[in-house]
Specification:
The complex is a heterodimer of chains A (about 110) and B (about 120). In chain A, about 0% of the residues lie in helices and about 45% in strands. Chain A has about 110 residues and is mainly β. The mean pLDDT of chain A is about 95. Chain B is an all-beta fold and about 120 residues long. In chain B, the strands form two sheets. Chain B has a six-stranded mixed beta sheet with strand order 2-10-9-4-5-6, with no helix packed on it. A four-stranded antiparallel beta sheet of chain B has the order 1-3-8-7, with no helix packed on it. In chain B, about 40% of the residues are buried. The chains are: A mainly beta (about 110), B mainly beta (about 120). Chains A and B meet through β3, β7 and β8 of A and β5 of B.
């Protein structure tokens, strides 16, 4: 079970938009619309931000959006705010009836 | 509101065993699958195990298969993770999470494997 590949870090200024990629294979990201994204602040449990590629749970800001093309999923944060500074992880269901997380991306608000 | 409380962590010697618990409230527990996820200190998230809503099917990461067992008691709204033959690389914060979307998470419980 390999991990999904994310950039180690992404930075942006307040108000800008940033995009985090999550690259897998046809056995996970490319094969199912079961990609989700999590935000984790230091010392806290992760929080679901996007599920099933592009759906937002109730209470999550519409500044967060998700998409997928082939074996790569993406999370876009629009109108970047200081509170968005955190680690972000993608996750996908796999053909082995298991789940796999991404390597994680640290988002810095400049 | 949904609430998950993880417990049972601690310090254990290599080769030892530990059982983690996750007590759930605020939703119909018996209707949802449950997950365990771990995070070594300073590192990323790793999926560990999933159990279906009725306990009939269980799935494990290769790294824990044959050593860890996930189970649940729907009468107690609790999911468990029995961990045997523990190794240093099992040291992590362990989180339970609800359903296939991991839509709610416990606060985590720290397991340290060290002599």
């Amino acid at each position: 079970q390999s991990v999904l590949t994310q950039p180690a870090s992404v930075a942006g200024s307040p108000g800008q938009s940033i995009t985090i990629s999550c690259t897998g294979t046809s056995s996970d990201v490319g094969g199912y619309n079961y990609v989700s994204w999590y935000q984790q602040h230091p010392g806290k449990a992760p929080k679901l931000m996007i599920y099933d590629v592009s759906n937002r749970p109730s209470g999550v800001s519409d500044r967060f959006s998700g998409s997928k093309s082939g074996n790569t999923a993406s999370l876009t944060i629009s109108g970047l705010q200081a509170e968005d500074e955190a680690d972000y992880y993608c996750n996908s269901y796999t053909s082995s009836s298991s789940y796999v997380f991404g390597t994680g991306t640290k988002v810095t608000v400049l | 509101q949904v609430h998950l409380v993880d417990s049972g962590g601690g310090v254990v010697q290599p080769g030892g065993s530990l059982r983690l618990s996750c007590a759930a409230s605020g939703f119909t527990f018996s209707n949802y699958g449950m997950q365990w996820v771990r995070q070594p200190p300073g590192k990323g998230l790793e999926w560990v195990a999933f159990i279906r809503y009725d306990g009939t099917n269980k799935y494990y990461a290769d790294s824990v298969k044959g050593r860890f067992t996930i189970s649940r008691d729907n009468s107690k709204n609790t999911v468990y993770l029995q961990m045997n033959s523990l190794r240093g690389e099992d040291t992590a914060v362990y989180y339970c999470a609800k359903a296939r979307n991991f839509d709610y998470w416990g606060q985590g419980t720290l397991v340290t494997v060290s002599s």
